[in-house]
């Protein structure tokens, strides 16, 4: 099936959803799976996921329920990410909620891929696991899953397309990380230089202060008294000069 988001191909309900030719029996997991299928094709993916979860819980070895649960969770996460489905937790952003549900979808596909014997089902499970990780921008895990899928079916064009896309996105992600690391390194170096300059400035100031003579309280009082004594002597000399009638010479007039 062709998906609009990132032009990814995904094996979803329309391609591989397990529909059973039900017989009249009392197997609870099959009845619940049928209810899930009805909800899924009715566009109620969250409701379908609940049915599939109950079906898987009723029989731990009923991996058809696991696959369909992964598919329903994947579609639900896409709807939340595109804001077509309301997030089950209003406290979470759509991207955060979708990321959590993509993780749950991936878990279900991994269970199928590691549990069933059918190569065709395993190939599709790894493909869908890769899609879920890709939507989380976990490109390395997505690439690994697509490669596992291609080992089983090397000529699958959908998986080859998704693998090429994941490789391109991983390269971009690594380039951005290298750029961010370079910027962080430069910022740290700039901060180091600023701190070093502050230390140097402080040392210079301390040296200037050390070069200037420091005067304690006793020395200051002695200097003040010396200045007062000098002032008294100056006043006494002036008084003595006035009493003797001495005068100063006038400036020359040219």
Strand and helix map with partners:
Layout: H1 13-16, H2 28-41, H3 45-58, H4 63-81, H5 94-113, H6 119-135, H7 139-152, H8 157-211, H9 217-243
Overall description:
There is one protein chain. This protein has 254 residues and is mainly α. It has a domain at 26-89: Serine Threonine Protein Phosphatase 5, Tetratricopeptide repeat. The protein is 72% helix and 0% strand. The protein is built from nine helices and no strands. It has helices at 13-16, 28-41, 45-58, 63-81, 94-113, 119-135, 139-152, 157-211, 217-243. α6 (119-135) runs antiparallel to α7 (139-152). The protein is rod-shaped and about 130 Å long.
Which structural traits does this protein have?
single chain, 254 residues, mainly alpha, Serine Threonine Protein Phosphatase 5, Tetratricopeptide repeat, rod-shaped, disordered N terminus, disordered C terminus
